[in-house]
Design goal:
This protein is an all-alpha fold. The protein has helices at about 1-5, 10-40, 45-60, 65-75, 85-105, 110-135, 135-160, 175-190, 200-205, 215-235, 240-265, 270-290. The longest helix is centred in the N-terminal third of the chain and has 30 residues, at about 10-40.
Amino acid sequence: MMLFTSLTPTMTAQAAILATLALFTASYIAAWFTALRRAPIPCPAMPETLTGFITNFFDTLGIGSFATTTAIFQFTNMVPAQLIPGTLNAGHTLPTIFQAFIYIAVIEVEPVTLTAMIAAAVAGAWFGSGWVAGMPKRKVQIAVGAALLFAFAVMLMRQLDLFPQGGTALGLSGGNLFIGVVMNALFAAISTIGIGFYAPCMTLVSLLGMNPTAAFPIMMGSSAFLMPVASSRFVLRDAYSPKIALGLTLGGLFGVPLAAFVVKSLPLTAARWLVMAVILYAAIAMLRSAFAQPPRQA
């Protein structure tokens, strides 16, 4: 009895969220396994598995995985352009959820804010993934190129320490909570194109006066919930590369624990400048390819 009475509302909410996330994860794994069994696919090769390992390793340490993976896809022609968003979401879902189970309960945040922001992200991902999965090739190329430029801008702001400092609050209420919920849903919808979710979410909660540290459970929880929802829609529409996505997942599930439990931290300033240069080049190449095609061929 003492065990349960000593639990704070925040701890109870986080436990409920993790239990719900476990159900989401099980449902997604079942749906993806069923889809993979419809037609046998080749075993993932070293390039895609290594890509998943490296990108999720650095994602766990704070660099991000979507933009870096997209850049690798662009340089290697590993995935057709129109399948990049779906492959990103499907391939990085389980490693992202793994990160959530490691980190989501570490930092306290007000339960209503946490739950509302996560629910908004799920709704946004559902609508966004349905829209992106039906986009023609040229529009996907333009969207992905724009997403890479956005990722470059965000990383540049981070390198130059231009992000808002935030406040001290651990939760939102009233108008700020409404704004947070609406914007989190929008960020989730847009993230299904291939834009990383963490930076926009961190900026939002900081601008609304929250402690940036308290934003971590919000952005991690939102991302962990929105990705299986979005990925399920890409999988059901066959708008992804199963072989590449499976390779990203297998590699990522090794990269996350290595970063979280063994390496824990690295001096990443120089690495971010290198990643930024690669992302910028990939964005320009993607957009040039898109605009070289007549619109009617999209």
